[in-house]
């Protein structure tokens, strides 16, 4: 039994805002998975995930919402109910696969049972993109159970760094409490934690007051930049349909590395943000909706360090100007790098000045309605927004990955929508390719293929800028 950390609890409360708050990782793999045999696949998934702290953990509320919910072992759950296999409906095209990915993502999770599901789907037909065809491995978890890097590690339990034969991993039984967790036990544990929680809250309050004073002094001295807070509202903020779309693209990682070298200190993530920025401006301009001002991208930043914990949310949020109105691709990359650098500094040195971490520690009876009211208020804004979109980075590594001996060809993730943020991107790399995906409310981006084509064109502009200048023709 363990209590949800404050950030994870808020991910649960966000279910009350009208948007499901789960994550999904997508692995496009070689087509032979289901030929392995359904029972072997199920046994592989269950055995590999059994070592996770989220494997059998379900959410239990404390009566009266006096304190944050708990994750308790569900000794009666059947893991086979969490593993499904099937085929992709329709013509088996990548477009049909994307539609099925979005449909699977839109299915609500049953919060009364452990917060994960795995689905394996076959039937992507051979094409230029997938010469031998492909299958899908979809791993869905609730955000209350883990953050983005947590789901990468969770999904990674199913994967290997070498092809068949696959060596099974033996997991020692995790210590679990076999008795049912009674209401009295939860209240008792909460009561025992209350004095320490109050003391930590007061200490955090005084620490935040001091941090805010230092932050104001740093702003006055010009050693830190304020967090971007106002951008024009665009269709990317639309969440009215409630139905989502998905698509993904990839470019050679070597291209992105050459683009990175255009600006001293720039990162691969900066390069991807520059492509996304240029793509957004192109897409909106084509629709006659080009924003006159720069948009703001939320960029989650991990606080895990070297050791990634699956069962918690350890993230903070950066707000990065996309500089989408800058038409020169190299200058856009330079400005984005400057914005990300400033936000990394602010969130590293002055993170304690944020009031958010204090608010998260309020009792659920207070924070839950506050969360719902705040998101609804944000959704009513019509001219300015604090976030235009979101882009997160979940690296998978350079080594090839295999699921039951079948190589992973592409990988993406889908992020939950929030009120007024109707489009989210994931940036990742695997092997020698950089992947960028979009999942969005269908009202915000009805045509994902066209949208990604604009991102690809913006990336191509950067690649072109890396080409050596042609020598002038001789006049002789």
Quick description:
The protein is of the alpha+beta class and 476 residues long. The protein folds into two domains: 166 residues, Chloramphenicol Acetyltransferase, CATH 3.30.559; 246 residues, 2-Layer Sandwich (Chloramphenicol Acetyltransferase). It contains eleven helices and 17 strands.
Strand proportion:
15-25%
What is the number of helical segments per DSSP (H or I, 4+ residues)?
Answer: 11
Name of the CATH class of the largest domain: Alpha Beta
Distance between the termini: 83 Å
For the record, the count of structural domains works out to 2
Average pLDDT, to the nearest integer? Answer: 88
Please state the structural category.
alpha+beta
Helix-strand topology string? EHEHEEEHEEHHEEHHEEHHHEEEEEEH
CATH-wise, what's the superfamily of the largest domain? Answer: Nonribosomal peptide synthetase, condensation domain
The largest pleated sheet is described as: 6 strands, mixed
Examine the secondary-structure arrangement and name the CATH architecture of the largest domain: 2-Layer Sandwich
Strand order of the largest sheet: 5-6-7-2-15-14
